[in-house]
Amino acid sequence: MRTFDFAPLHRASVGFDQIADLMDRVMSTDAPQPSYPPYNIEKTADDAYRISIAVAGFADEDLSVEVKEHALIIAAKKSDGDAARSYLHRGIATRAFERRFTLADHVRVTGASHENGMLHIDLQREIPEALKPRRIEIAPAVAKPGMVDAKPVN
Description:
This protein is about 10% helix and about 30% strand. It has about 150 residues and is mainly beta. The model has no long low-confidence stretch (mean pLDDT about 80).
């Protein structure tokens, strides 16, 4: 695996501490990421996203969606109904899991729905008015009263 030195990023930028820390965390993690449950992240509009997670076998009360400190945490506890069942073949996993997604600034969760074995979480990026680009009008130079034009002498 390659290693990258992000020291120049720290020296030449101001206010990008979160990005540098995130890159350090991603690059330093050697542990394999869990692949259960499978999920999709799709862009539904310019500033809207949807995370879809396959949660077949889980009921609504088994699932929890929480936002905490710029992190979206989806967790499921194991259903108690499986203990009484006797399977000949078990191909649908219903083991407990916890999946975390780091949310960017100004991204909020607008809703969650559970249908047909899929948990859909809708996200919206809402940029505050103060951070939106704005055009500044340039006023023409106006001579102030009492000012005299200077002319070179020589």
